[in-house]
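Researcher: Please generate the 3D structure of the following complex. Treat every line as part of one assembly.
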Amino acid sequence: MADLDMVNRDPNNINDFIGVQFEDVLAEPEGAHSIDCVWKASFFCFNIWKNFFYKLATLCCGMCIAAEWGCEFARIAFTHIWFVTPFFKVLEINCGCLQKFWALCVHCCCDPCCEAFGLIFGAFRKD
Amino acid sequence: MADLDMVNRDPNNINDFIGVQFEDVLAEPEGAHSIDCVWKASFFCFNIWKNFFYKLATLCCGMCIAAEWGCEFARIAFTHIWFVTPFFKVLEINCGCLQKFWALCVHCCCDPCCEAFGLIFGAFRKD
Amino acid sequence: MADLDMVNRDPNNINDFIGVQFEDVLAEPEGAHSIDCVWKASFFCFNIWKNFFYKLATLCCGMCIAAEWGCEFARIAFTHIWFVTPFFKVLEINCGCLQKFWALCVHCCCDPCCEAFGLIFGAFRKD
Amino acid sequence: MADLDMVNRDPNNINDFIGVQFEDVLAEPEGAHSIDCVWKASFFCFNIWKNFFYKLATLCCGMCIAAEWGCEFARIAFTHIWFVTPFFKVLEINCGCLQKFWALCVHCCCDPCCEAFGLIFGAFRKD
Amino acid sequence: MADLDMVNRDPNNINDFIGVQFEDVLAEPEGAHSIDCVWKASFFCFNIWKNFFYKLATLCCGMCIAAEWGCEFARIAFTHIWFVTPFFKVLEINCGCLQKFWALCVHCCCDPCCEAFGLIFGAFRKD
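Model: Done. Output below.
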């Protein structure tokens, strides 16, 4: 079991679009600055409440949810690896035959026509 | 908790389109200049009233609003991180199978035809 | 509060299209010149009346209008900074999810077809 | 008040299209020349009457018209500088929001489809 | 009052298309030559009658017509310089506003759609 990076907890950037930092949400452009202490207090309020609720929610449910997803993904992995992928291999082989036969027919019928119509653009040919 | 930049309060430029400086709003072109003291007084009036009302509003509601958004974003982050993203991962795996199956069918049926029709543009091929 | 440039009163050129100088309005081409004193008198009349009325109007209403716009822009800045922008952030996050789901469906259905049809233009491929 | 150029009275060439010189109006090509004195007399008649009437008209009305245009342009400048431009600034800010919202919807709906259809032209991609 | 060029009476070439010389009108190609004296007599007849009638007509009416055109062009110059051009300046300023408003609407509505549809041709992008 690999080590767990405690600092960068999204190494594959799958949740990057969820920006919930203070500066992603609230920002005062030049010319509209509130009083310094108000801005500072807003920053602490935002962070304290956000962290409090998030940490509370994960403390209560985090482990259960993770366990549940563990079971679910075990089931999915088992199904796909042992049934779906081999079945697709069979399908692929049979489809290959069918496609070869179908290509034979189509090329037989259409190629001469298309080559003929292709003469319309003969002027673009670079010899 | 990171430091708060008190000078540049919009490091990600998300509110850049809100230009509320005096020179963004009022400007006198060449040939239409009011008396100097009037222009100066206008500048001070604009800034004093703008700052007074903005600072008053943020003083009253700023912290509450920030706290409210903190809770809201904690909820959003929790939902997306622990439910939505893993659910999408499941969906993605199943969709990958479905797409592979559907691609097999489509490529089997259409590829020969499209290759044949592609001969029409054969003159553009660079050998 | 920043300094006010009393000479160039339109640093961002937002009112450049308002050309109200004498030579922007009245001009005599070669071959149609009035008597010199008439032309000079017209120049002074134009400028005196223009400046008199403009300076009078700004003297009467300038400061009030500027104060009014100050309040208005304080209101706009407050609304946008503390409500609209964070709300858009929430919307953006949810929309990101929806788009991911919708993209999954669309790519699943359409990608194989479009790739197959793309073979028609195979001749343009640069290998 | 800037200096007035008494010789070149159209520094911005706004009335260049009004050519009222004798050679702009009357001209005899090779092979159709009137008697010299007639041509010369026509030249003087044309210029004397043109100048007489133009100078008379400007002497009578020039200053009044210039004064009138002065008032008019003072009114226009005042309206545009103090009302129209700030109002457009407000409109711009609100429109910016609306556009962001509309762009979110459109990109959410159309982007996956357009990307998928774009695969049809995949052969033109320069890798 | 400028000098009058008595030789080149069409310095701006405004009447160049009126070719009334003998060789512009009558010409005998190779193989169809009249008797020499007939050709020479025709030449003199043509020129004498043309000059006689043209010079007579200009002698009678030239100066009056020139004077009349002088008055007319004085009227035109006065109208255009003192009324039409300033009026167009007013129109231009108002049109500038209207255009800004219309551009705002159009960019707001169409920009997101066009960007999305532009993805169809993403393959032609040069990175």
